[in-house]
């Protein structure tokens, strides 16, 4: 391990992270990727932590408490998927307001949230290993995940000539969020609600892609364009995306699909030799589509076209946007 930090894409949130990396100096090791990697006894341990805060990442009038626990855990597990890692377990720090009413039966909100955490962990073969419980002004679910990776895939390995691929279909989470904000949550189709409330971390997909030579990978949490920018910055390449190729959720335009955050699909750079046959094999193994949406090129940043016409890439989600 070295004391270096990966280069991040643009944005106020990432300016703050860059300043933090500088302040940490040699106390920080390989910062800026989806997971921390530690070599222990010939194995590579992958560790990540992800915080979900009421009013920022979720609302209790939109989601049941069990869904809140699932969603927070799936978001953290998605970081393991982006490394090609196999989950082992999760640790959870849970903050619960002391004056909230109990929601279901005699069980406390903490019980319902942790039931969702446990269900998400079990869905990928992991266990809940422990955590902490505190009184908090707002609900807070802070999930640390641990896994092992035989061949970890960083954001920094993409090279010019690699194909750029994405799993699944994009835009469903954004479409559901728009409906919830407009007060139409009760009329959401079941599949669309599941897409928002119970995202699926692409663990099997990440492992399959890692074994087939993925050179760089990231999960799509801040929007396709924004996360592609992080791959480009970390790898020192340009990323060219053909908007018309982006696989979209029904009823979603390509531009809306690349803006949509919290999708938790995987954006992956694959060697030039990986093509249609590989994508079909991926589909047979995982039940998911894998779509080529562009390529890694010489240069810097994200370039986007629609039917050959240049398009300005939309910004990714930023916790600290410029005022």
Description of the structure:
The chain is an alpha+beta fold and 323 residues long. It has nine helices and twelve strands. The strands form two sheets. It has a seven-stranded mixed sheet. Strands 1-2-5-3-4 form a five-stranded mixed sheet. Helix 2 (65-83) runs parallel beside helix 6. It is globular and about 60 Å long. The protein starts with 11 loop residues before the first helix and ends in a 12-residue tail after the last strand.
Distinctive features:
323 residues; alpha+beta; 7-stranded mixed beta sheet; 32% helix; 5-stranded mixed beta sheet; globular
Can you lay out the helices and strands and say which pair or pack?
Blueprint: H1 12-24, E1 36-40, E2 43-53, H2 65-83, E3 86-96, H3 109-123, E4 127-135, E5 140-148, E6 163-167, H4 172-181, H5 190-197, H6 203-211, E7 216-219, H7 224-235, E8 238-242, H8 254-259, E9 266-270, H9 276-286, E10 290-297, E11 301-306, E12 309-311
Parallel strand pairs: 3-4, 8-11
Antiparallel strand pairs: 1-2, 2-5, 3-5, 6-9, 6-10, 7-9, 8-10, 11-12
Helix pairs in contact: 2-3, 2-6, 4-5
Residue runs with pLDDT of under 50 for 5 or more positions: none
**What fraction of residues sit in β-strands?**
25-35%
Total helices: the number is 9
Specify Rg, calculated over alpha carbons.
19 Å
Give a quick summary of the entry.
By secondary structure, the chain is α+β, with helices and mostly antiparallel strands. It has helices spanning 12-24, 65-83, 109-123, 172-181, 190-197, 203-211, 224-235, 254-259, 276-286; strands spanning 36-40, 43-53, 86-96, 127-135, 140-148, 163-167, 216-219, 238-242, 266-270, 290-297, 301-306, 309-311.
């Amino acid at each position: 391990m070295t004391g270096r930090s990966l280069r991040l894409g643009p944005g106020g949130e990432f300016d703050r992270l860059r300043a933090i990396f500088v302040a940490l100096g040699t106390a920080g090791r390989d910062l800026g990727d989806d997971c921390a990697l530690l070599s222990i006894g010939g194995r590579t341990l992958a560790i990540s932590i992800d915080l979900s805060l009421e009013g920022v990442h979720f609302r209790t009038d939109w989601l049941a408490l069990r869904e809140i626990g699932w969603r927070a855990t799936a978001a953290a597990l998605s970081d393991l998927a982006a490394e090609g890692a196999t989950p082992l377990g999760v640790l959870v720090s849970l903050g619960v307001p002391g004056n909230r009413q109990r929601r279901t039966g005699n069980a406390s909100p903490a019980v319902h949230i942790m039931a969702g955490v446990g269900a998400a962990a079990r869905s990928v073969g992991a266990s809940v290993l422990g955590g902490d419980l505190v009184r908090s002004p707002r609900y807070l679910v802070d999930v640390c995940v641990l896994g092992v990776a035989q061949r970890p895939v960083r954001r920094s390995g993409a090279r010019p000539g690699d194909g750029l691929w994405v799993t699944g279909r994009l835009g469903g989470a954004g479409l559901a969020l728009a409906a919830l904000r407009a007060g139409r949550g009760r009329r959401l189709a079941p599949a669309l609600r599941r897409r928002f409330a119970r995202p699926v971390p692409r663990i099997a997909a990440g492992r399959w892609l890692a074994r087939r030579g993925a050179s760089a990978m990231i999960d799509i949490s801040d929007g396709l364009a924004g996360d592609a920018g992080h791959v480009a910055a970390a790898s020192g390449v340009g990323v060219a995306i053909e908007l018309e190729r982006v696989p979209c959720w029904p009823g979603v335009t390509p531009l809306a699909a690349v803006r949509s955050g919290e999708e938790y699909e995987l954006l992956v750079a694959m060697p030039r030799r990986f093509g249609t046959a590989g994508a079909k094999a991926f589909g047979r193994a995982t039940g998911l589509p894998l779509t080529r949406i562009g390529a890694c090129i010489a240069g810097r940043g994200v370039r986007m076209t629609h039917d050959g016409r240049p398009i300005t890439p939309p910004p990714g989600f930023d916790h600290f946007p410029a005022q």
